[in-house]
Each structure stands twice: as C-alpha cells, then as structure tokens.
C-alpha cells in the first residue's frame, strides 16, 4: 500500500482563509487523535511495505507541535512539506513563496530530525503555467507531488515546459 496524507489543522487554516486570524492555536488534541487513527491503519497492513506513508505536513504544525512531527517521523513515516500555512500559492510573489517554503522546511527538519525531500502544494495550488514557483520548489526539494495529469506524456511535456532539471515530479494521476 502506498499512501500519502495531507496533514494540517483544517479549522486553523479555515480561520486564516476567512481572515479571522493570521495564526492562532492549533487543535493539538485533535491532531494527535487523528494521527493515532491514521497510524493504526498503516500498522494494521498485512505487508511490511504498507506500514508507512508520507505525511505532507504544514510548517505551522512543526512550529507549534514539534513533538507530533517527531512522533510521525519516529514511527517510520516520511515527513514532507505542505507549505508553512495551508495557503493557496497561486498569485503569491516569489519572495512570499520562498519565505514560506524555507520556514516550513526548516521547522519540519528541526522537529523531525531528518532532511525534508518532498513537497505538495496546499490544494494543489501551485502555478502550472509559470515556472517561477516550480523553480523555487526545485531549489529546496528533491520531489514534488502537486501536479495532476492523465498520462506520462503530459507529465513529460510539463517538465520540459517548466524547464525542470533536477526536480522529480510524482504526479497524481486521474
């Protein structure tokens, strides 16, 4: 079983998107409870390979609840980046994107004690028509899992158009 989880505090992020706050408290008990449920599903897998997954976590969780990120990592799951907050990236400046990605990556690495290699944009909201966002991702990460497509040919054309040299794209096929 191969599974990735977008792991964020939806309530916190909704209040940010509605302009109620820039940042507020996380629902820490809820996050721990949901992680426990998800982890038990992984651990109940009958195959050794199916007992871990990738958790695309926001940087704010690593900043405000580092022990949870450490626990996810120590349980054998990969920690990957899901931006600093769960904000839509489209329309953000290069400066904002690089700042948010760098802060999130640093917080996740500090909390997990491991290098962070992967990235997935919140709501898959990375700009697929302008390469500057992907170039920043390429500078900071080994792979990206924000691109959705239907064929491998579509993926090849996209990588060529974006002039991505090192960044591995792990697409979401639909």
Please tell me about this protein's structure.
The protein is an alpha/beta fold and 174 residues long. The protein has seven helices and eight strands; from the N terminus they run βααβααβαβαββαββ. A three-stranded parallel sheet has the order 1-2-3. The protein has a three-stranded parallel sheet with strand order 4-5-7, with no helix packed on it. Helix 4 crosses helix 5 and helix 5 runs parallel beside helix 6. The chain starts with a strand and ends with a strand.
Keywords:
globular; three-stranded parallel β-sheet; alpha/beta; about 45% helix; about 170 residues
The average pLDDT score comes to 92
Strand coverage percent: 5-15%
Could you list the spans in which at least 5 consecutive residues all have pLDDT below 50?
none
Q: What is the terminal separation in angstroms?
A: 18 Å
Gist of the model:
The protein is an alpha/beta fold. The protein contains seven helices and eight strands; from the N terminus they run E-H-H-E-H-H-E-H-E-H-E-E-H-E-E.
């Amino acid at each position: 079983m191969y599974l990735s989880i977008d792991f964020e505090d939806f309530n916190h992020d909704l209040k940010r998107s509605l302009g109620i706050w820039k940042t507020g408290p996380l629902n820490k008990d809820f996050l721990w409870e949901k992680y426990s449920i998800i982890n038990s599903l992984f651990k109940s897998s009958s195959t050794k390979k199916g007992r871990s997954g990738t958790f695309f976590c926001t940087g704010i969780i690593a900043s405000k609840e580092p022990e949870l990120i450490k626990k996810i990592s120590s349980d054998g799951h990969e920690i990957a980046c899901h931006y600093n907050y769960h904000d839509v990236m489209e329309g953000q400046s290069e400066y904002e994107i690089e700042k948010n990605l760098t802060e999130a990556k640093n917080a996740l690495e500090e909390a997990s004690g491991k290098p962070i290699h992967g990235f997935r944009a919140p709501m898959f909201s990375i700009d697929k028509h302008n390469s500057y966002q992907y170039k920043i991702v390429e500078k900071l990460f080994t792979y990206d899992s924000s691109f959705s497509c239907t064929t491998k040919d579509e993926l090849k054309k996209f990588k060529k158009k974006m002039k991505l040299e090192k960044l591995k794209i792990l697409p979401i096929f639909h």
